[in-house]
Amino acid sequence: MHYVIAHYHELALKGRNRPILVDRLVRNIREGLRGIGRCHVESLAGRIRISLDDPSRWSTIKPRLEATFGLANFAPAHHVSSDIDTMSAAICETVQGLPFHTFRVTTKRADKSYPLTSIEVDRHVGAAVVERTGAHVSLGHPEMTVFIEILGTSAYYYCERFPGAGGLPVGMSGKVACLLSGGIDSPVAAWRMMKRGCRAVFIHFHGHPFVTRASADKAEELARHLTRNQYHSRLYLVPFGDIQRQIVLSAPAPLRVVLYRRLMVRIAEEIGRENKCWALVTGDSLGQVASQTAGNLTVVDEAATIPFLRPLIGMDKVEITEQAQKIGTYETSIEPDQDCCRLFTPPNPATQARLEDVRRAESMLDVHGLVKQALEKVELKEFAFP
Ligand code: ATP
Ligand code: MG
């Protein structure tokens, strides 16, 4: 049998969240490793142990664990008896061919009944490695660290561990309805909420048939990409061109963008309700464009009856772009499309729409009817990973 030992962030462990977090994380790892032959995932004394019968799948397993929110780090580990001499001998065998001049040993005992303290184990194993390899101990800047984890009569050790994605396991913070435009910002916003443990339900508004389906295709591609982090996703494609046309016909041009957004919010809320979402999420960043001034964001907010989250509100475009590149959505986001909002965008949108003006404009529209009409034409796409 082969093992991977994975750790979650200790800070996330406070209080009653702990069992919920661990349980969810174990289930998510199982989902993420679907199709990897025989593999068993279990929580074991403060860490997670993955047992595999085929180690050759590591190149598939590693990226899947890297995409698992809630993991602090993980490592393929050797299993050995926790008898100190047996352990020292096995570790010496493993490290003697490795290229290093300095090292340290870092031991953790899950069970304090072990006869030696962690520091005593460090010293004992360290001395054996020095004798076998001639390397030096460096506690501050070692070229290699030998990690030992003692769990009762078993021990696991490894010399290389990989950083996890951090955050919280997807699903433990409920579901949120993410407005996914196909631009750079909204996939990053959705990713950040997923990282805090939310399952994202994606909603995209498109202008087809007035424009091409390019924006919807991008939204699909982005939703598919982000599904790596949450295993299955729903994307709702909402035809929005007709609604925009009606707004253009009846409302003053400078108010259009805010009116579009308020309609999007109402439609997204209905879809969110159906999916038991507790909040709406957008990629707004303060002051980035006319629709995202403090005044306009407030007016858009007012149309929502559930919490309205904007995880990027305090980030600038450079920071958002860097994050989009890191999470792998940037290349799709910059492909050309025909965004529904640009379809009927006035040359001079109001930067400070007044709520009473917006309400007056809405009173000329059959808002309820427009929402209903859009919901009837919604298309649902589902994605699964792996
Ligand atoms: P993005 O890069 O996310 O498109 P942006 O800087 O282009 O953002 P806007 O176009 O003003 O900004 O959109 C602000 C937010 O409103 C988006 O981040 C997204 O959450 C939502 N949004 C805008 N257009 C759409 C759309 N067609 N479908 C779904 N959500 C949208
Ligand atoms: Mg946009």
* CATH structural class of the largest domain: Alpha Beta
Largest beta-sheet details: 9 strands, mixed
Report the order of strands and helices. EHEEHEHEHEEEEEHEHEHHEHEHHHHHE
- Alpha-beta content class: alpha/beta
Find the CATH topology of the largest domain.
Rossmann fold
Count the E strands: 15
Alpha-carbon Rg, integer: 26 Å
The CATH homologous superfamily of the largest domain is termed HUPs
Report the principal-axis shape. Answer: elongated
What's the tally of helices?
A: 14
The percentage of residues in β strands lies in: 15-25%
Notes on the structure:
The mean pLDDT is 94. The two termini are 23 Å apart. Helix 7 runs antiparallel to helix 8 (256-274). The protein is α/β, with parallel strands linked by helices. The longest helix is centred in the last third of the chain and has 19 residues, at 256-274. Strands 1, 2, 3, 4, 5, 6, 7, 8 and 9 form a nine-stranded mixed sheet that branches. The chain has a six-stranded mixed sheet with strand order 14-13-10-11-12-15, with helices on both faces. The protein is 39% helix and 23% strand. The protein binds adenosine-5'-triphosphate and magnesium ion. Magnesium ion binds at residues 181, 183, 339.
